[in-house]
Write a structure and sequence with these properties.
It is built from four helices and no strands. It is mainly alpha-helical and 99 residues long. The protein folds into two domains: 58 residues, no CATH class; 40 residues, no CATH class. The longest helix is centred in the first third of the chain and has 21 residues. It starts with a helix and ends with a helix.
Length: 99
Amino acid sequence: MRISKAQIGQIIKVYKAQGASRALTSGLEPAKAASKDSMKLTVNQGDIEKVNEQVKKLPDLRQDRIQELAQAVRDGTYKVDPTEVADRMMGRLLADKIK
């Protein structure tokens, strides 16, 4: 399964929003203000950085799968289902459009 950069961005946004909602429900005290009410929210940046680091560690290419497919092409046993290709192309297009 491929995860697009747009999807990663969405995950990070959701993660940040969840962190903000946790901060709201965790009983934080509102910040003191002279003329208006305000509240200071913090997002656990460490968790977001951990997620980013894990994503960066993922390989861009799966060499084992590449070798397997290359061998199938050489052997003449690799078959392409045009319907499946079209379905995946449309799925990828839709996934990239979701923001």
